[in-house]
Amino acid sequence: MDSGFRRNDKLGACRFWPRAVLGLCLAVLLVFPTQAAEKVPGSELEIKLSFAPLVKAAAPAVVNIYTKRVVEARGGSPLFDDPFFKHFFGEGFGFGQPSKRIQNSLGSGVIVRPDGLIVTNHHVVKDSDEITVVLGDGREFEARIVAREEKVDLALLRVKSDKPLPALAFGDSDDLEVGDLVLAIGNPFGVGQTVTSGIVSAVARTHVGIGDFGFFIQTDAAINPGNSGGALIDMQGRLAGINTAIFSRTGGSIGIGFAIPSNMVAAVVAAEASGGHLVRPWLGLDGQALTAELAEGLGLDRPGGVVISSIFQGGPADRAGLQRGDIVVAVNGREVRDPQGLRFRLATLPIGDTAALTALRRGRAMEVNFELVAAPEVPPRQETPLEGRHALTGATVANLSPAVAEEMGVMGAWEGVVITAIKRGSYARRAGFEPGDVVLRINGEDIGDVAGLLKAVAESKDRWEVSLRRGGEVITLVLG
Could you give the residue range(s) of every CATH 2.30.42.10 domain in the chain? Predict the structure, then answer.
């Protein structure tokens, strides 16, 4: 009697197994036909092909997060609380006395250090007045926010415990490949902790409209409301990412979910451990993605990379010898396909080190080393709220510098005046100005700094003409 699998016997060996196990069996046999045919399963785990050991080890470190915040509602009509009306008429719009009510929300988090440090999404705990963390064994803790990184949609919480808490180790998200199996652990819809499985369907997904650093792991593991902040783990039981968002037309999972890579999470945790917030290295260049059309025009074989359009004089890119027209294709050997990918690669590197950047110049590859430094704040920002009667009443402006440009996400501009905030219901808001707008001219007068802008709006006028740069385009608002 033959006790081993044979090539002609593959399906027969599996035909009585449950359907889910049968699928995994077929996958293993297709990928490893020779080994599967010659080796008999040597343990119960190999026969069951179960994720249970991974879940048992990782799940205790994934927590449920419940938040409360007090909101004011005005009597008379629900329309008075609608953001659309508040945008135009201000917070005081409505009739009657405001009444307070409690707004509850839920999400998930991951314990990353036994001393009680927890990672979650910023949007899970944003504006919360109370945060309660519930472990899988039922223990509850009051939590406080110790770090916020809104641009990458991450927040760090701290809870106090007399005993070390179960923590999840970081994996290297750069090691993930399309097709790798992953598990998503979280608290969808508030039903309690659940686990779903799937594969990695993309590893560097950008342009999905989530956060300023749009660089995500995409997976078909089911992620639903309440999963936000939960763990995406690899087959070694390590944290591969923080589940953040889904693409859905109904609110439920349709197999397209996004997770923040663990390397970005690790950078935020390391910054908190050093007593600060995440400071992203600055290159001092701006550029655009190398599209198929651009690649054809430049005589290149394929698209992918960042075409440098401007360089800050004296910045790291300038000192490294990069030039306009060079195409950045990799950082430390990791591929870069667009500006979002370049920003992500830089954001995961520590200030003070050096990094290797690969670029193409006239079709030839070259490698240069550059310093990882923080963007300088020169000149001082001189942040100033604007009052009086003029086109920008209610806006707050600041001098542009590399640091302010990075903070505001203003690309291709390192000098001038930028709008940093606008009061709700103000004239500037109603006139159509937005945070991030760079003010270029007021009534034909060039604006170079905050002092110049204050002088330009000091005189009362019946007509205002303001030119500004927004998203790479120059627009002019005429107000009277």
Answer: 285-371, 384-479
